[in-house]
Amino acid sequence: MRTSSLATYRCPETGAALTLDPGAQTDGDTVVTGRLSGGARPYEIVDRLPNFAPDETLKGTAKFARDYYATIADTYDENVHITFDLYGEEEQDIRTRMIDLLDLKPDARVLEVSAGTGKDSVLISERLGDRAETWLIDISPEMLGQARDRLAGNRVPAELAVGNASALPFADNSFDALYCFAGVGHFPDQRAGLAEMARVVRPGGRVVFAEKNVPPWLADTTYGRILVNNNPMFADPAPLALIPVSARDVGIRWINGNVHYVVDYMVGDGEPVGNFDLDLPGHRGGSFNTRFYGKLEGVTPETKEMFHKAAAASGKSLHNWLDEVVRDAAKHDLGPPDGRKGGSEE
């Protein structure tokens, strides 16, 4: 961990800023061992890796992922090619196509979630300049150890941390881009994890995430059933309903044998905004807002028929005719604004 990274790190449970306890062992700008305080609990730094997901905080799929990858970290790279060979795909081509969607600028600050052994981290860094930064987070310290070795000597600075994707230890708007390949299926809380992705990327930045999934049109094929039989995660639905409301220009495609979805989007600011007061042409008239907020109690079928005929005879839209009639009737019944009844004075 670099001491300069403190400005970006936050307690994943409270969002509070963190401080490095006195007595930390450092090597220049690198913290070798130490402790971060100021949040819900202290977070240990061991062998240059801050651990924002202590064992006692893990459960379900997160605990499974940590335990599983601890046993295969040393051999993971020897077998990962099967993920692509199985479908007759070129691993480099698939990884490149996904990273293309980040639309990286040379000085980008990129976060890779579920970074694993850093195979994609190398490809990402090759697109960046000397002023850029790469940040890697993974639930498994063993996998990050492999990534650190792979990135040793890389000209683009890399900051690595152990953490839970459903509670990222970073300040809002910290990154220009975020990438996650084959991690979403192990998120302990997918809704929280996808929301966290958008939270830590600045508006205008890009998010790309991918995971295995047999799409609906292949679910009942022999091809699809074989894959699900081998790994039930292939039956997990693509989490389209969990994409945050701030997502803009969302794209989704299935690649790598047509059984890995890839979602990409630009981060916006809150919900989209529409000009819902725009006057709508045609027989109905009105606007999106009047149709949504201006609903009235129902009338009899006979009254509705008369309403349509009267509006047509007047040459007005249904909205304009009804709005004028209701407004005039309400003014009559309510009287003048000062409460005096209308009529002549004597």
Overall morphology: elongated
Mean pLDDT: 95
Strand content: 15-25%
Largest sheet: 7 strands, mixed
Order of helices and strands: EEEEEHHHHEHEHEEHEHEEHHH
Instruction: Count the beta strands.
Output: 12
**Backbone CA Rg:** 28 Å
Describe this structure in words.
This protein has helices at residues 60-72, 76-79, 82-85, 91-100, 119-125, 141-151, 190-199, 222-230, 288-293, 301-314, 318-334; strands spanning 19-20, 25-27, 30-37, 43-46, 49-50, 109-113, 133-138, 158-162, 175-181, 201-212, 247-255, 260-267. Helices cover 30% and strands 21% of the residues. Helix 10 packs across helix 11. A 7-stranded mixed sheet has the order 8-7-6-9-10-12-11. Strands 1, 2, 3, 4 and 5 form a 5-stranded antiparallel sheet that branches. Helix 7 links the parallel strand 9 (175-181) and strand 10. It is α/β, with parallel strands linked by helices and 346 residues long. The protein starts with 18 loop residues before the first strand and ends in a 12-residue tail after the last helix. The model has no long low-confidence stretch (mean pLDDT 95).
